Structures are given as structure tokens and as C-alpha cells.
């Protein structure tokens, strides 16, 4: 039996008794030879597939025909899978067998799955759906991160870093060079964007740029948004749209007129929060330059283009939802009424700052203005583009640590277009920027404006606002005036009727964390008073005045 079925090598017959002397079973020997042969065969399959021979695929198909009946055998299965992986077009019959068998489908390479998915949208959707959900969960978790800072905000990671995320890399691998699968993913994203979740727009841009990074021209060359997205990506990296790139972007936009579906995709790419952030920061910088030049907003072509792109991005949802692909007209009054009103607020501020530096006998008795121009209030309520700019102006004055302007503007945010001021992205950035004025929280007046005048006006109906307030207090609790802190703790206690199994769990955790921090602060305060010797007397030394 051994002679008939063993390895027929004359030189081997005399060597086998040595293995017997070492107590090595023949099964172990034959198994190791089998494994070695299988590895060599799999390597040879890869070499044939990568070769230049005209009949290379017919050789692989021949091997597939011989090996496929044994696909269920664990020892032969890797060879079959290797052949399937390297065939650019697997026979339809074999694909159906693999698709119908869950075990085979699970172990087959992504190259084989792509061929199954391209003709089976429902199955591809089942594979992609968990990844899309995971992406949204990750983005929302980033907005509620425990890091409350301007330096480590939602917009801190560079575009290249974001594209290294698990979901983007997995989707890129699943798509490969398959245009049909790429189109399917885009269709899923367009459909899901109807839920008004802007993170799907971010994924749309990240996916295209991830394929661009891998130099997959088969897809990049057929996506009409590729060059526009590539140029915008460079702007997002710099967090500014310069004049040269602005003209490039305008050329792409003007060149797509009449291409309806393309306009819908461009609007999605511009609706990406990272793109919006870059556009509005560029608008703010443009306005600063116009102020210094005593120029009007309508006289700046760069500003008008930035507003046009912001308007197209802000109108993305309406366009995709209504399926009417027409570039929205920018309301002229945004340029002729709202921007001058906003610039007048900046001028008020500059006048007050200059006055404070004058000798006392030259100062006027006029107090810092508390009211805002009517046009400013009206546009915040009624116009999406104006509201976006108004919200970013708040960040601008917070960066300047301008307490007066902040106290003047925050109450105006209670009533904004579509409650944009109570959205997660704005609140995430606002809480981070407010840390720059942490010392001001010792004043009850400042606390009253921030909390009573704005944040607490909607926290009871909007759990996300409640969470953002607690996030900020966990970071700033030691700076807040004690009387305000006591009142806030009572107000912010999670209500009993809203305690669901999932929704309020993070809320409870944040409140508990804040309570623990306050307890720890109370315990440490008396300890400092009782043991002054350990303090080296530093608590009695007054800080030198910066003035």
C-alpha cells in the first residue's frame, strides 16, 4: 500500500527508515510535504497571474476546474481560493456557488467578493451598512470627546490623517478599482444624506481622496468631482482658500454648469463640515482685509466666490432631497445688509478698544454697546449662509478673548436658522473656544450671559446641549463662580423621566464625573488651609498685576 500510494522517489525510499528511527510518523512527513507542495502551488498561481503570457488565465481556469470540486476540503480550499482571487472574471456558476455557501463566502478574498457584489447590490449594502454606521458613531463620539480645547478640536486632524481611519480604509479596499462598486457606495451616501447627517458628506470626499492617494485612476478619472475635491482638499489642509485656488475652484464650478447630477455631488462635497469650516474661516479673513482697506464686501470677487460655494454647500440637502439640481442663488441682502451689519459690530469693537487706550481726559463717556443691528438678528434667524458666518464670528471674538463682544453676541444665538447654534459641531467648537476665557467664569455676570442667556435656554429639550454644558464644566468647574456652580448643578441634574437605557447614559456619566470632581475639589481645599507649612507660603503672595 505504501509502495503504491507513497512518494515515488528512488532516493527517498532509503531515507525514510531514518525518520522511523527518530520516531517521526509517516503521516507527519507526508503532511509536511503536502503543505510545502500547496505553498509552492499557490505561489505558482500568483506568478502565472502576474505574468505576461496570453494564455495565463486559461491555465488558471483549467486548474480551477480540477480543484473546485474539492473546495470544501480544508486542505485544498486555500488553493481554490488563490485561483479564484487571481482570476479577473470568475465563471458565473462558481461565483453563485461561493455566494450561496456562507462559509465559502466568508473565506474568499475581497477580489472575489467584488465580482459577487457588483451584480448584487443588496449583499454589498449589507456589507457596507455596518461600516457607515460605525463611521457616524466615530464622528459623533469625536464631537463629544472629553478634550475641551481649541488646540484639539474636531477640525484638528489633517485630511490625510482622517483618511487613515478604519472605515475609509476598509471601504477603499472593498471598492478596489471597481467603478460600479464606487457608484453604489456614492448612491448609499446620497440616500443616507437625506437624514441631514453632514458626516456622510465628509465620507464622500474622504473616500474619493483615499482612492486618489492610492492613484486609482480607473475611478478618479471618471468621477467628475475629482479635481474639484482635490483642490478643495488642499485648501482644507491649509484651512484657507487663497486667490489662486479660489480661481481654480471657480473654473471647476463654471465648467459643470448644466451637469445636474454633478452639481448635486459638488454640493455634498461643499456641505462637508471640514469644507464649510475652511470656507467660513476664509470669509472671516477676507472681511478683516476689507475692513483694513475700507472696502465693501460686494467689491471683493474672492469673497463673492467663497459665499457662492458656501451657499451651494448649505443648499445640498434641499437639492438632493428635491432632486432639483440647480445652483441656489445667494440672497443679495446677505452681501448688502448682513455683512455690513456684522462689520459694523467689528467697528464698534475696534472703536471701544482704541478708546480704552486713550488718556482718561480724552475718553468719551459712552459705554460699550449692548444691542446689535436689527439686520444681524433677522439674518441669523432667516438665512442659513448668514447664520453660518454669524456663528463663526463668535469663534473669532472668542479667540481674541473679547469678553464684551461675546456678552453682546451670545444672547442673539438663542433664535437662529434651524437652531444651528444648538448643533453639535457649533457647541463642540464653542465650548473649546470658551476655555480661552476661563478666568472670566469667575464673574457671575459672564456666567449669566453664557449659561442663562444662551446655553440653558434649550438644554431641557435638547440632550446634546445638556451634554456639551457638562463637558465644558468638567473642564472648567474650578474656574466657575461657586454660587453659579451650585445653581448649575441643581439645574443640570439629569431628569428622571428622561433616563432611558441608552440615550441618557452618557449624560449620567458626565454628571457623575462632574460631581466627583467637585467633591475632590472640596476635599482638597480645606487640606490646603490646615497644612500651610506644605504650601511654602505661596498662597499669601499676590499675583503681580498685568496692567
From TrEMBL:
One GO term under biological process is: negative regulation of transcription elongation by RNA polymerase II
Q: Where is this region: Disordered?
A: 521-547
Q: Which domain of life is it from?
A: Eukaryota
Query: Mind telling me which InterPro entries this protein's record contains?
Result: COBRA1
Q: Which GO terms describe its cellular component?
A: NELF complex
Record's Pfam families? COBRA1
Q: What is this protein called?
A: Negative elongation factor complex member B
- Source organism per entry reads Tetraodon nigroviridis (Spotted green pufferfish)
